[in-house]
Amino acid sequence: MKKTIVTLFLIMALSKMFSQDIIVGFTDSIHSKILDENREFMVKLPKDYHNSDKSYPVIYRLDGNLDLYIETVGTINRLVYTDETVPEIILVMISNTTRNRDMMPTQTSYYQTEPGAENFRKFIELELIPHIEKSFRTTKEKLLCGQSLSSLFTLYHFLTSAYKFDSYIVCSGGFPDCEEYFLKLADDFLKTDYNSRHNIFLTYGQNDFLDPKGVMKNQILNFTKLIESKENITSEMKIYEEEGHVPFPSLYHALKFIYNNQDGI
Residue 63 contacts by C-beta under 8 Å, 6 or more apart in sequence? Predict the structure, then answer.
């Protein structure tokens, strides 16, 4: 009888231990007056956030979903706590509602309805960032990361409001039926005069199934060469020979690039 009771308690203890929730951040939301909708986002704080009085930089990543969130947390934790090459950072991942609307800054043959990138930019700058900075201990340093279609928005933000973020990460970017629009933005961008320094890291997978003829690759290569002429921009484009669309190592190499160039920010 005693053995049975001990065994029962052991089973209950193991069951409780293995059924515990694994907490890797949390989900929050705010109501956007600009977009006239609620917007959810996921947050991951540094391990010792609640046991310190430190302030932290923030990386804002677009296309927030659970799979990408877990991937992003794993990459950041590896760089921060294992490699020790990147400072602790707060992660904010913005979930989508109407993705095409928010990411497109102009009408194209692929997207013919009213573009919403300008309003989405205002939402991030005027509503989301102030909310994050009020809610958490943050430094002034901010990073923006987009992939695939959201990289189009990232490039749009870089060219129209570069001073709002210190660094930009563009994974599998391109200008589908809107290259002339972005070349005009780039031309205006090169004429702007401000002293702040910024990083931009762009990636491309050689086996990208969305770019069989290499059109987007050439667009981004030409774009990178164009913006390199601006003295206060530190840029790099990395091509992965064996990767496809949105190369998996993009964020890992982007953060290493950014913090290796930290003195330039």
Answer: 93, 94, 96, 99, 146, 147, 148, 150
Dihedral Cα 227, 231, 233, 234, nearest 10 deg? 100
The DSSP bridge pattern shows strands 90-95 and 37-44 to be antiparallel
Q: Find tokens 């981004």 and name the residue.
A: 220
What DSSP state is assigned to residue 148? T
pLDDT for residue 110: 82
Do residues 42 and 64 lie in contact, with contact meaning Cβ atoms separated by under 8 Å? yes
pLDDT of amino acid 16: 54
* Tokens 């987007």 found at: 216
Other C-beta atoms lying within 10 Å of the C-beta of residue 241: 8
Please give the domain boundaries of the chain with CATH numbers for all domains. 27-264 (3.40.50.1820)
For tokens 């599998």, the residue is: 172
Average pLDDT over residues 216-243: 93
Q: CB-based contacts of 93: which residues, under 8 Å, 6+ apart?
A: 41, 42, 43, 60, 61, 62, 63, 64, 65, 68, 69, 72
Tokens matching residue 72: 């992003």
Q: State which H helix or E strand residue 157 sits in.
A: helix 149-161
The number of beta carbons lying within 10 Å of the beta carbon of residue 42 is 23
Q: What angle do CA 165, 169, 170 make, to 5 degrees?
A: 125
What SS3 class is residue 142? strand
- Looking from the CA of 256 toward its CB, the CA atoms found within 13 Å total 11
Q: Residues 232-241: pLDDT tens digits? A: 899 999 999 9
Contact 62, 147 (CB under 8 A): yes
